[in-house]
Amino acid sequence: MALRIRVPRRQGRSASKTFRLGSLRPNSIRTALLILAVVPSLAMVALWGVSTAQWARDWEVQKDEKALAARAGTPANAVYFNLQEERRLSAEMLAEPDGQTRTALREQRARTDEAIRAFRSLSGIDASNAPEDLREIVELTRSDMLRIDRIRQSVDNGVAGQADVFRYFTELIAVDLRLFETLSRSQNSEVTARARVLIDLFWAKEMLSREDALLARGWDARRITNGEHSSLTEWIGAQQFLLESRIAPHLPHEDLLLYRQMTTSSHWLGKAETERVLLGAHSHNETSGIPLPDSEAEWRSSVDAITPQFQKLVMNRTIDINRVGDEALASLERRMTIVAAIGLAAVLLVVTLSLRTASVLRRRVTSLRQEALELERKLPDVVERLRRGEAVDTETEVPRVGHERDELGRLGQALNLAGRSAVETAVREVEQHRGFERLLQRIARRTQLLIGLQMKKLDEMERRHEDPEVLEGLFDLDHLTARLRRYEENLVILGGGQPQRRWRKPVKMLDVLRAALGEVQDYRRIQVEVEGRPWLTGRAVGPVVHVLAELMENAAAFSKPPTPVEVRAGMVGRGLVVEIEDRGLGMEPDEYERVNRLIADPPRADMLSRADDVRLGLYVVARLASGLGLGVEFRPSVFGGTRVIVHIPEELVADRPADDAPRRAGTRREADAVHESAPPADGAPAPLPV
Fold this sequence. Notes:
Blueprint: H1 11-22, H2 26-95, H3 99-123, H4 132-144, H5 148-156, H6 162-184, H7 189-218, E1 223-224, H8 226-247, H9 253-263, H10 266-280, E2 290-291, H11 296-364, H12 366-387, H13 394-397, H14 407-464, H15 468-494, E3 507-508, H16 509-517, E4 526-530, E5 535-536, H17 538-557, E6 565-572, E7 575-581, H18 589-600, H19 616-628, E8 631-636, E9 642-649, E10 653-654
Parallel strand pairs: 4-6
Antiparallel strand pairs: 1-2, 3-5, 5-10, 6-7, 7-9, 8-9
């Protein structure tokens, strides 16, 4: 029989226990009342807690976003404008390093450094609830600003290229703009929408600043390269698109007036005229570049006049966004407070009503609870008596109790019916089970008689034949018949009976092991070793042979051929111990615990109703061990497999008989395939082979 198989818990028994005790124990009524009071209260508390926590979380996130925007956004504006101006002056310095440009650049660097210091000091606040990408871009902006000293030194030494300086400042400004874009992604949709216009305004100003920086290095040579002209064309187009399509349509009335005043001024028109000339210019020679118009002074005055207007427009938008953010944060805080207060009031109301309702119901069901307690006390005892075979009168054990005709009265009547139905069902179940056990035993006993006759016939044929081939075939048939007898005995044991094989005299332990070995399919892999010459009492021989055969077959089945299965027997302080050790895969620790628990507490007879359970061999071992007082324990083996220890108590160990002499059992077994012969027809036990 395969023993080491993982199966589900015993559903039938647990379900029966749940029906008898779980439904009717006193805690069930108290639990129902508690659920009626607590579950709605807990649900309301949880709902209130989740909603309040969500409001608080949103408030914390928007507060941190607002704090980070206020601390990092405003100084970042100053950094943005100062970096644009330093980029232009650096380009002029590299193109024409005169004293006036050097002085202007030095003064601008001082203003830039002041803006950077302000940004680094104000943006370094703790905003742990702000989005991670927002905190990362703030740190990136702070770290990228540290590289500006190296670029300035290369500009002062005249070793930096125009393209490298332009690229550094442009990338640093782009990082600053990424900060603005990240700040604009607020959880407040109104703030996000208004910030989008501000971001477009920043980019429009950046396009103009890039034009200015590119022209600053081109005015000296009065021409720019074809690639620079392409970039200039792209920036002019992007600026016009942003201003006309993305900014102007979304400006409020005050800022729209300022925008129109800026774009209709003479300075803006002068700038636009220079850009028109630049866009219309083209090169006659691929290497000579594109000439610039002679309007440097007009361009410079126009850009210098437009920049403050741009800055004012940006500042207005920034102030407006901060105002909207403050209003949204305050509104969210008010809503959070109101919702939390209303939710708390609702929670208190539900808790109060639930507790009062539960108190009333508890007083109404006190009598039913007492009845349920009485039924709980009686019902298990009645069922247990039924299982022991005692006669039970349903009317006496579960008397009818009168109840009123209200809802709780009908509940009491249903309780009476449930108790009576449980007893009647248990009676029918026990009767059916007993009938099944008797039928199973009758079938198994009849089959055992035929198997005994077959084994006796095989014995006679073995004695009559001397041909090795014929004997080998007879021995194989004898081996199969012995295994079949063990399987039939399993049915008898599971049906509540005991094995029929009996011995009146003690038997050597070596013969017992050989008999068990003869009932195992893969017996050639099993190695038997016995220390000394211990003997067993006659009454223990049959059950011990059966237990050892089941365990040996289990070890052989769960270890890969040709690995051996070692069986060792020897005397210990309080009896005899047999160890069966294989080299298979073993079991998980929890599986060892379940198997040992099953052996220690054998299953009841109702396990027979589970015909599809494949662990019948383990049940047989458990019942035989329990009836005989054997100790069986499964442990992990040092070889990786399983080690089973069978302890036979000292009262089952016999002294060596005085007339002990070698006996033979004819030619019925070979040395490596021996097992016990069938009982003779007169019922006397046949001797075990040596």
